[in-house]
Amino acid sequence: MKFKALTAMAALLVAPAVMAGGPDDDSLVINEELEMVTETAAPDHLDALDTIYSGWRFRTDETQSLQMDDFDNPAMIFVDQAIDLFNTVDGSEGKSCSSCHENVEEFKGLTASMPKVIDGKLTTMEDLLNGHRAEAMGADPWKWSGPEMQAMIALIGVQSRGMPVNVAIDGEAAPFWEQGKEMYYTRFGQLELSCASCHEENWGNYIRADHLSQGQINGFPTYRLKQARLISKHNRFRGCIRDTRAETFAEGSDEFRALELYVASRGNGLTVETPAVRQ
Amino acid sequence: MRLTTITAALALTAGAAYADGHAKMVAPGDVAFSEYGEVDASLSGKPGDPEAGRAIMISRGKGNCIACHEVTALNDAPFHGEVGPMLDGIGSNRSAEELRGIVANAKMMFPETVMPAFYKTSGFIRPGNGYTGKAAKEEDLSPILTAQEIEDVVAYLMTLTDS
C-alpha cells in the first residue's frame, strides 16, 4: 500500500525526492564536523516509542541540506543579528547583555536543560531573557515570538548545538511534567485530535502533503522557509492545536510552558540542533 | 453567518420537516447508531449525490478525506495521506449503513480512532471557531458536514467498488 501511494504520488507531482513513509536514513553533520544524534533510544519515561528521531529526518533532501552548513542556513542571519543585540545597550540601567555576560559562549549547555524549575516556577528561555531584561537592564520585555526574542534564543541555542537534550522531569519539575503529559494526550477541538494522534500514532505517515514527524523541539526556534522567519515552540504548538479546530492556548501561557517541558523530555537524548530549517 | 448558524440550529433542534415537506432531517444529537456503529436511514431524508460527495472528499474546507485516505479514483486531486486505510473497493466491502455511521461518527465503530466525527456538535474539549484558534460556544457549533453532505459522501463511497 505504501508502494502504491508512492507511485501514485510520483506520477502526479513534480516529485520531491523523499516520498516514502518513515524517517529517511540520512545522517546530519553540520559544517562537516559537528555530528548530530538524529536517532536514539527513547527515554525511559516514554513507553509508546522505541526510537526517537529528529524532525530533520522527515524533511526533503533540499530542506535538509540547508541545515548542514551554516553558510546555507538562512536562520544564521538572525543569529548574527542577535550577536549585535547581545552588545546593544537597552533599558533604564544603560546595560547590554554583555555588561554582565562576558561572552555568549558561557551559555553552553543551557538550552539542553531548558525549560526548568527556578524558584518554584517552570521557566523557559523566553522567561529567563525577559527576566534579565527587566531586573538587570530595566528594559521592556520582548514579545514571546518576536524577532529579537527568538533570534537571541537561537544564538544561545547554537552554544549547545550537538549536546544531548536533558531536561529534568523529576523533583520540582514533576507536577509540571505531568500537566504537560496530560495535555499531550488530550484530544482537543472539533476534530478531537491530540498531539499523540499525529506525532505518536502517525509519525512517518503523510497527512495530506505533510510528512508527519515525531514533533520534537530540539531544533527550535526553527527557520520556516514558508514564513521566512524564526518560529518559536509556542507558536508551533498554537498552530497545531488550532488545526484541530480548537480554541488554542496563548504563547507564554502556563499550559504551553508545561507542554514545552513534556515535549522537550520526549526528545531527551537527541542533540540540540538550534536553529533547524523547515519547509 | 450568525444568522445561518441560528437557522441551521433551529432546523436541527426541531428535527423539523425538511424544506420539501416530506423528508425528515436527523439532528447531530439524534443520530441512531446501531450497536456496531451503523446508521440505517438517510440523515437528510434524501438520497445522496455522488458527484457532490466526490467534491467534498477532496475539499480541504469540507471532508478533506484524502488528507488521511488514499483513493485511486481521486488521483486527479494531489496529496493523499496515509493516516487511514486506503478506500479503494470500500463500496463493495461495506454497506451504506456502515459507511453512514463511519462518516457521521467513526468512533461508534472504532472507539479510539483518530478519524474525526463529521456529524457531531457536542462533547468537545475547547472547541474552536473553525480554524481561527478562537473559542466557540458549543451551542454555535455546526457539524463539519451537513446531513446532506454526509449522504453525498456515502453515495460517493458506494461508487468505489473496484479494489
Low-confidence stretches of chain B: 1-19
Query: How much of the polypeptide of chain A forms β-strand, as a percent range?
Result: 5-15%
Q: Identify the biggest protein-protein contact and residues per side.
A: A-B, 36 and 35 residues
Low-confidence stretches of chain A: 1-20
Work out the radius of gyration of chain A. 19 Å
Keywords:
heterodimer; A: 279 residues; alpha+beta; 3-stranded mixed β-sheet; two-stranded antiparallel sheet; 10 helices; 11 strands; disordered N terminus; B: 163 residues; mainly alpha; globular
Provide structural commentary.
The complex is a heterodimer of chains A (279) and B (163). Chain A is an alpha+beta fold. Helix content of chain A is 34%, strand content 10%. In chain A, β9 (222-224) and β10 form a beta hairpin. Chain A starts with a helix and ends with a strand. The relative contact order of chain A is 0.18. Mean pLDDT of chain A is 93; it is low at 1-20. Chain B has 163 residues and is mainly α. Helices cover 29% and strands 0% of the residues of chain B. Chain B is built from five helices and no strands. Chain B has helices at residues 2-13, 50-58, 90-93, 96-105, 147-158. Chain B is globular. Chain B starts with a helix and ends in a 5-residue tail after the last helix. In chain B, 40% of the residues are buried. Chain A binds chain B through residues 1-2, 4-5, 8-9, 11-13, 21, 186-193, 197-198, 201-202, 205-209, 238, 241-248, and chain B through 60, 64, 66-68, 70, 72, 75, 78-83, 86, 107, 114, 116-117, 120, 124-136, 141, 144.
In short:
With 279 residues, chain A is an alpha+beta fold. In chain A, 34% of the residues lie in helices and 10% in strands.
